[in-house]
């Protein structure tokens, strides 16, 4: 978060809090207040604001998704799953909610369900780069190297400067035995600020020696 945005947050929060007081049934006011609280790191208040948005409108799938993201960040996978499933019940075409479920299943090491969720996310929104990139990770874990490489390349088509995308492609190429190209993407990931696993770096350098 830029310093300029950080400095503006208190003013934005004050304005949104006032708007919520003036319009206590405005789902968008509480939703946006929740998002700004999240940016400010005021997580408990963000939860309350997003919960209020959902009380006002039980079809507010975006509020459900963001509330699920908070729970995921807190390590509460059950609540995170519940919120994203509610969002999907409201909007079955929500690529982000399906992608979030993929992350939850991936965290639980249920890779088949994770792949299914990521594929559903991509079906809903083929331009959701994060779904392609996370799908890459799971496919690599399952030893499906060709599919992992295809998914990684698609993710990078959508976000060419994604550190995660370059790292995941590097790993997929490594397991496929394409060490030279793997190093290109590993170096790019590092250049973009990704903390590449030192063990992976050492192993790849050994293969290239």
TrEMBL record:
TPR repeats lie at residues 27-60, 61-94, 95-128, 129-162. PROSITE patterns: TPR (PS50005), TPR_REGION (PS50293). PANTHER family: PTHR44998, UDP-N-ACETYLGLUCOSAMINE--PEPTIDE N-ACETYLGLUCOSAMINYLTRANSFERASE 110 KDA SUBUNIT. InterPro entries: TPR-like_helical_dom_sf (IPR011990), TPR_rpt (IPR019734). SUPFAM superfamilies: TPR-like. It comes from the Bacteria. Keywords: TPR repeat. It comes from Desulforhopalus singaporensis. It holds the Pfam family TPR_1. This is Tetratricopeptide repeat-containing protein.
């Amino acid at each position: 978060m830029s310093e300029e945005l950080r400095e503006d947050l208190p003013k934005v929060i004050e304005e949104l809090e006032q708007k919520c007081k003036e319009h206590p049934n405005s789902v968008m006011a509480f939703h946006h207040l929740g998002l700004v609280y999240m940016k400010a790191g005021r997580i408990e208040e963000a939860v309350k604001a997003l919960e209020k948005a959902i009380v006002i409108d039980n079809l507010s799938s975006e509020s459900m998704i963001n509330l699920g993201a908070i729970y995921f960040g807190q390590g509460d996978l059950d609540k995170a799953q519940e919120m994203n499933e509610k969002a999907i019940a409201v909007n079955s075409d929500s690529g982000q909610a399906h992608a979030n479920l993929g992350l939850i299943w991936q965290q639980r090491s249920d890779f088949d369900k994770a792949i299914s969720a990521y594929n559903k996310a991509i079906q809903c929104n083929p331009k959701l780069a994060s779904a392609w990139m996370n799908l890459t990770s799971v496919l690599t874990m399952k030893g499906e190297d060709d599919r992992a490489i295809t998914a990684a390349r698609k993710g990078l088509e959508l976000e060419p400067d994604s550190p995660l995308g370059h790292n995941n492609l590097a790993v997929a190429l490594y397991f496929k035995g394409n060490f030279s190209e793997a190093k290109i993407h590993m170096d790019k990931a590092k250049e973009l600020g990704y903390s590449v696993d030192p063990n992976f770096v050492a192993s790849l350098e050994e293969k290239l020696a």
